């Protein structure tokens, strides 16, 4: 995507991701809706409740009252987690057909709202889960979140798919914003070093981080990096999302100790 204010492209990618989720959910059995996912305490239906809740909030719907102290749950760590759990708790016993109808209703309303927004409104300052930014950035994060949760559902049910295309590309772009923090602060890469994250598909990227007083993404060069990690884009995004990945297939080269530190610190969201 060419910029945060590219309303047409960001909106089309988000709406396309909702369509992909709709198609996936529409083919699930009741048993599959009840299957546990890798996210603590959440089944497939709970993941969908979370997606419904966030879009409902953006549509102006009130947060449901449940009478449950969601902050007492061990996997609730902050205000965002508590908000998510309010919706999960409220919709815990909804039937799959009702959940799918709710998802379709809120995404239809959100699609209409996004399409009606002006470029200025889309580019306006806004709170986002990553801090104060713009509404456009928030919608980019929505693409990342929705696609990651689609993959959570697919992983739980062993239905791989949708690992290439606009939504995973946008999710990768969002995740790449964290690489400077991961390489420079968390992995403590020394000044003057470069780290290459070579993604070999389904989305192909060569992400190079240079440390020169601060760690930041730079254009790819022919110079050999200080350390390199070679892995698939799907695995990279899974690790960035803090999802479990038993025996991850990652090729480390150069300064392998530094490469290992970067690999161990990839998780920047859960």
UniProtKB/TrEMBL annotation:
Positions of the Mycothiol-dependent maleylpyruvate isomerase metal-binding domain: 17-154
Domain MDMPI C-terminal: 170-260
Pfam families named in the record: MDMPI_C, MDMPI_N
One MF annotation (Gene Ontology) recorded for this entry: metal ion binding
Extent of the signal sequence: none
Protein name, entry field: Uncharacterized protein (TIGR03083 family)
Organism from which the protein derives: Actinocorallia herbida
Organism ancestry: Bacteria, Bacillati, Actinomycetota, Actinomycetes, Streptosporangiales
């Amino acid at each position: 995507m060419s910029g945060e204010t590219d309303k047409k492209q960001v909106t089309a990618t988000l709406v396309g991701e909702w369509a992909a989720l709709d198609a996936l959910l529409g083919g699930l059995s009741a048993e599959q809706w009840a299957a546990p996912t890798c996210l603590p305490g959440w089944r497939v239906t709970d993941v969908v409740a979370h997606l419904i809740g966030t879009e409902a909030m953006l549509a102006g719907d009130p947060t449901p009252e449940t009478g449950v102290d969601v902050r007492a749950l061990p996997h609730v760590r902050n205000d965002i987690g508590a908000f998510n759990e309010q919706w999960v708790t409220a919709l815990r016993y909804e039937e799959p057909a009702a959940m799918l109808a709710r998802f379709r209703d809120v995404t239809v309303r959100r699609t209409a709202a996004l399409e009606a927004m002006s470029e200025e409104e889309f580019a306006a300052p806004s709170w986002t889960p990553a801090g104060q930014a713009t509404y456009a950035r928030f919608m980019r994060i929505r693409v990342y979140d929705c696609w990651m949760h689609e993959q959570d559902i697919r992983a739980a049910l062993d239905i791989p798919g949708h690992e290439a295309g606009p939504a995973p590309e946008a999710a990768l772009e969002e995740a790449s914003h964290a690489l400077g923090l991961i390489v420079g602060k968390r992995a403590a890469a020394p000044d003057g070093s470069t780290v290459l994250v070579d993604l070999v598909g389904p989305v192909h990227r060569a992400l190079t981080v240079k440390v020169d007083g601060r760690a930041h993404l730079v254009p790819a060069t022919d110079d050999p990096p200080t350390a390199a990690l070679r892995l698939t884009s799907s695995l990279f995004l899974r690790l960035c999302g803090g999802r479990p990945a038993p025996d991850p297939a990652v090729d480390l080269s150069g300064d392998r100790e530094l490469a290992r530190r970067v690999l161990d610190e990839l998780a920047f969201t859960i």
